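User: Hello, can you help with two protein structures?

Assistant: Certainly.
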Amino acid sequence: MKIFMKTTIFYFSGTGNSLYVARKLAEALGNSSVLSIAGYSSAEQIGGENERIGFVFPSYYGNLPRIVRRFIESLNIHPDTWVFGISTMAISFGKGSISALQKCLAEKGITLNYGDGVTMPRNYIIEYNPYAIQKAHKCNEKADKRIKVTANEIRAKKDSVRKGFLTTNTLYKNIESLDAAFFADDNCSGCGQCEKICPVKNIKLVNKRPEWQHHCEHCVTCIHWCPKEAIQYGSKTKKRRRYRNPKIKLSDLTGMQKNEP
């Protein structure tokens, strides 16, 4: 078995679930860097025969988030790199995102060697009420066990791609206009936290009020991390719980704009 000298894990995360998984994998694999997809930009070739590259990201309606797809399309990956992908998801339906990742890489001539999903607390507040805190903790405990298994399989260079049904991802057909339903209610303090934390810089503070710029990823990061719970999406989110991974701090995600190992 070949010895991998280095592992680079790229992640995209809104509530912190995918960042948490990426960090746990890096810790288990050793000699690993964890880099934000939102903050990374390089034209240089990455990877190589004795290197691993991983992608950790949430499943969006059984498909890849657009930002992840664009990022992979922009990368120059050495064809001999051992590549893995982990999708954080609320249900097994989310493994369609692994199928999407495999297809996206194949279009670049890159093989996905390992792909699987890790079930994490559901958080797409626009569609449903996120888990209560105790249920979320139990889900995260189960996820820790799954992450250990996943890390062992990656370390052993196990070729295994556990795919799911690839959806058409109709959510993104009109995504540029979907952020029209976001607004800040009267609880907004004008702190600007939403502007700082948005991974695609889609929010600008104008006269101490957030305005959405119509290139939204629908990651709902702004809703979950607003300290006043002032950001809403139409009439759907007012009475719903907010969720943030308990092991991830605000400063971890505001740093997504920077390329930090």
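That covers the first. Now for the second protein you mentioned:
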Amino acid sequence: MGRAVLCRWCAGCCLGLHMALTAVLAAAQLAWRPDKAVDFTVGTVAGGNSDKITRLAQKILQDRKLVTTPMVVINRTGGNQTLAANFMAQHTGDAHYLILSNPVIFTNELSGRGKVRHTDLTPLALLMIENTVLAVRKESPIRNMADLAARVKADVESVSFALPTRGGQPHLSAAMALRAAGADPRRMKAVLFKGSGESIAAVLGGHVDVMVSSSGSVLQLVQSGQMRVLAVAAAQRMGGVFANAPTFKEQGLNTVGIAAWRGFHGPKGLTAAQLAFWDDALAKVTDSPEWKKHLEDGDLTQSFMKSREFARYLEGEYAATKAMLADVGMLN
């Protein structure tokens, strides 16, 4: 009798121990965190706005020990950011690879410049939405969008535009403005530069007329009076340094351009556990004092979205971008 009771007691303990171990193993399988070096890809040159954003995120992740393995930022430039996208597409299922993404991920696909589709990568987080601005050097005879509209309507090729990419979000925003001004956007005189530093040098030197870029790229130059903003490609005015810069619509042009969002993507095929890790880590990055100061200094609004919400947001942006490209004759 005693032996039978003892056996039943031992069997119950073994079953309980087995269930506990199973739960621990299941939790271990569900949890994920980087166990090797994390590779941050930037498709533009070092020192540019995208590069600075990525390096700030890297620093916060490491300083706060949100990622305890080494992290490196690599500028994989070329092909209108297609080389960077191609590199990411080679690492399916590996969440140790991230890329700083922007609307070029759409425009390259839709204009036929890149083979990697936006669905070949995994949205991880929306970091911010920057406004695009059109700016000139202080000595420029182009004082506002009315001056610019008059010149391009008379001869669209009489004005040159410094751009980071052909068919990208800045190019598309400027093309929409030209179309609204009555000029043919397909004949825009686009001068491409590898980074904002080169564009700035060309505009300040009088070699190119108008710089089209994120507001952050020209903030200090506008603040110092070296450059003047003609217009902001947005639905409403910005504040701070750009408070006096009117929108396209305020100047009679029926367009707002396209949102200059910045986010992180990973390769295709990531697991729920991998997405959960980056959801949490990147949320903590954007909640840090360092990140908030970066937004405040650039007159930017916090626009963080986790992976699932970011994916839904991108569906709408993709459709809007496709319609705009078709509207200005740039859709492949």
